């Protein structure tokens, strides 16, 4: 890229020229969030992807999110700035192994967390996100047998909230399993009025400490409406940008990891840069392409989710 180019200006120009919409997840770098037409959690982003009238969806997020957008708007061009922006949680559940797992429970309904491949969604009955997982399980009859995957931490959380006995796939997110309960307790002692808020992808012993548990949008809303001045935040650090923007007078502290080498950044989310965003809009690639049959089969469980959460 020509170093004299003003990338922000160029991206805005390309957006108009191509009738494109930029959808960004809260875990993106601040400069990408500030350029986006819509910033949201996984549910909000999929709702936007389903209803946009743009010709091109530029997804500033990770691969499974862009795939979900393509499944919901198959006639649109969906671009992802870096195809290598994957997800450790999605990787923890290869579809061929999940298909075998599913065979062991033929009378169970399959609910999959949206953080998984399109092939996995195609093997599911209903998709969910962190903001509607509890609601979706509760919408089913009490005696409904359920398999839940790939996130065991979200699955455990849903089990506790609903009192249902779900069969869980043993997957997890690399970013949400790094937090230290001891260090969080020490931080709370240092900031006595602080609230501790956590994403349900965190482990059980971390969630047990939380004043609020929810999706990225849920956590952001909580910090806007709540009266505390300081928040210790157990999720990816990108969300702190919107928290700080929405409540400039409040203090937000990323929850400390148990290992000094670990950090709260998702290496996949952070692969996207302004330069890659510009290049993908200029050259219309990398583009998300999915087999027609996968789109058709994955559409039903996602649409079922959108109907329940409407
Ligand atoms: P939400 O934004 O839906 O809470 O998802 C968090 C996440 O891990 C996305 O990868
Ligand atoms: Fe996947 Fe975790 Fe990164 Fe979200 S934060 S994209 S779940 S690895």
UniProtKB/TrEMBL annotation:
Pfam family membership, one: NadA
Main location: cytoplasm
UniProt EC number: 2.5.1.72
Keywords: 4Fe-4S, Cytoplasm, Iron, Iron-sulfur, Metal-binding, Pyridine nucleotide biosynthesis, Transferase
Record: residues binding [4Fe-4S] cluster: 87, 173, 266
Enzyme class: transferase
Similarity section: Belongs to the quinolinate synthase family. Type 2 subfamily.
Its biological purpose: Catalyzes the condensation of iminoaspartate with dihydroxyacetone phosphate to form quinolinate.
Protein's UniProt name: Quinolinate synthase
Top-level taxonomy: Bacteria, Pseudomonadati, Bacteroidota, Sphingobacteriia, Sphingobacteriales
Gene responsible for this protein: nadA
């Amino acid at each position: 890229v020509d170093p004299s180019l003003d990338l922000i200006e160029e991206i805005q120009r390309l957006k108009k020229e191509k009738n494109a919409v930029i959808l960004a997840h809260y875990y993106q770098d601040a400069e990408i969030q500030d350029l986006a037409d819509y910033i949201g959690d996984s549910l909000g982003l999929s709702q936007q992807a389903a209803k946009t009238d743009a010709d091109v969806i530029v997804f500033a997020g990770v691969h499974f999110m862009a795939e979900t957008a393509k499944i919901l708007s198959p006639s649109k061009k969906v671009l992802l700035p870096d195809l290598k922006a994957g997800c450790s949680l999605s990787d923890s559940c290869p579809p061929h192994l999940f298909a075998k797992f599913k065979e062991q429970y033929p009378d169970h309904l399959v609910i999959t967390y949206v953080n998984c491949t399109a092939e996995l969604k195609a093997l599911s009955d209903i998709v969910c996100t962190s903001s509607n997982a509890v609601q979706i399980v509760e919408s089913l009859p009490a005696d409904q047998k359920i398999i839940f995957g790939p996130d065991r931490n979200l699955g455990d959380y849903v089990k506790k909230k609903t009192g249902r006995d779900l069969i869980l796939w043993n997957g997890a997110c690399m970013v949400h399993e790094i937090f230290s309960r001891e260090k969080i307790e020490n931080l709370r002692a240092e900031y006595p009025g602080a609230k501790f808020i956590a994403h349900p992808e965190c482990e059980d012993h971390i969630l047990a400490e939380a004043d609020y548990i929810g999706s990225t949008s849920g956590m952001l809303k909580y910090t806007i409406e709540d009266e505390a001045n300081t928040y210790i935040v157990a999720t990816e650090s990108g969300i702190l940008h919107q928290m700080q923007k929405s409540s400039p007078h409040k203090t937000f502290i990323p929850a400390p990891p148990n290992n000094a080498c670990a950090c709260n950044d998702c290496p996949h989310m952070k692969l996207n840069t302004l330069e890659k965003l510009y290049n993908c809009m200029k050259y219309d690639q990398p583009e998300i392409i999915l087999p027609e049959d996968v789109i058709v089969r994955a559409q039903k469980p996602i649409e079922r989710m959108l109907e329940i959460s409407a």
